[in-house]
Amino acid sequence: MKIGIVGAGIAGLALGNALVQRGVDVEIFERSARVRAGGSGITLAPNGLAALDALGLGERFRALQEQQLPLRGGLKDPRGTWLSRIPAEVTTQSLAISRAKLHGLLRDGLPDARLHTGVEVLGADPETGEIELASGETRDFDLVVGADGINSNVRGSCFDDPGTRYAGYNAWRAIGPKIDGLEFGSETWGTKARFGVVPLQDGSTYWFAVKTGPESRAGEKCSDELKSTFNHWHYPIPQLIAATPEQDIQFLPIRELASPLPSYTNGRVVLVGDAAHAMTPNLGQGACQGLEDVAVLADLLGGAGDGTVDDTLDLALYDQQRVKRSQRIARQSRLVGDVAHTGGHRVAWLRNRVLQATPDALTERQTKRVTDWR
C-alpha cells in the first residue's frame, strides 16, 4: 500500500514516522520550503502522550518528561487567587515542550527521501487517490491523508467544506525567559481576557494571552493593547511580557471549523488533525486530538499490509473511533471560550465564584473525560 500524506505538521509528521517504522510506503508533501514550527510552546496532555506511545514514538518524549519539573496547574483571577486546580494526576503526566522541539523529534528518523518540501498539493481525487500539485504534476496513491491544517486544500477538494469561523477572540503567544520562582503553570481569567503561563521542559516559559475583540489582520501586533490589558495582572504576567522581545510575539485570530464534518473519510481520502476538526485551543487539545487520529489510522494502515483501500482497509472504523470523540472535545473547547469571554465585570465575578465553589472531584471527572484515552 502506498500512502500520500499532505502536510508536515504535528499530525502529518507523527503519522509518517510511525508508518515508516511499520514498513509502509509513505511520502509526505509540505508546501513550505522547510518543516518548521511557530515560536511557541505546547502541552501534551496524557492522551497525547498515550497516542505517541501507540505510534511507537513515545520513548523519546517520555525521556523529556522525566527531565521536567513536576507540572502543577489551575485557574487564577487577575490578583493571583486560585479559582480551581487541575488534578495533579493529569498535570504530572503531561509534557510542556516548545513546538520547535516537538517538530524536531517527530522529524527525526524520517528519511529525507520521504519528505518533499516546497511542494503544494492543490487537491485530491477520492475515487482514484490522485493528488494534484501546484506545479501541474499528479501523483497516485492507494490512500491520501489530508494533514494540511485548518485551511486544508484536501478537505476543500474532497468534502463538503464548511469553511472556518472566527471564534471572537485573538491570541498573543511566545516563549519567554525562565522566570524565578515559577513552579506552576496556570491560566488567569479576567473580563473577556485570559493569560496562560507554562514552564517548559528546557527551562524557558511559554505564555499566551487571549482577548475578545475584532478579528486581527495579518501582520498586526497590537503590543500596546497587550500591555494595557495585562500589565496590572499578577506576577509573573507583566514581567513575562516585558522580558519577551516584541519580534518573538505572535498575534493571530482564533478560528475553528464553522460546522463539524459528518465524516472524516471519502473514498481513498482521509482527514486528520485540524484538517478534520480544527478547534479552539481552550482545552489545549488540538495537537492531542490529531495524535489520537493518527494513532488510530496507523493501526488500521499497519494491518492493511500490501493490500489496497478497497479490499483490506475499512475506513469506517476510523470514523467510528474518531468523529464522535474529537467533535465532543471541540464543542467543550468552544464552550470554555464562551464562558471565559462572555459578559462584563459582573458576569466574570460570578463565573469566578462558581469556579471556586466547584468540587475538585467534579473538575477531575471533567478533565479526565478529555485526557483519558484507551
UniProtKB/TrEMBL annotation:
Coiled coil: none annotated. GO terms for molecular function: FAD binding; FAD-dependent urate hydroxylase activity. SUPFAM superfamilies: FAD/NAD(P)-binding domain (SSF51905). Residues 3-332 form the FAD-binding domain. Keywords: Monooxygenase, Oxidoreductase. Its EC number is 1.14.13.113. It comes from the Bacteria. It holds the Pfam family FAD_binding_3. InterPro entries: FAD-bd, FAD-dep_Monooxygenase_BioMet, FAD/NAD-bd_sf. PANTHER family: MONOOXYGENASE, PUTATIVE (AFU_ORTHOLOGUE AFUA_6G14510)-RELATED. This is FAD-dependent urate hydroxylase. The lineage of its organism: Bacteria, Bacillati, Actinomycetota, Actinomycetes, Mycobacteriales.
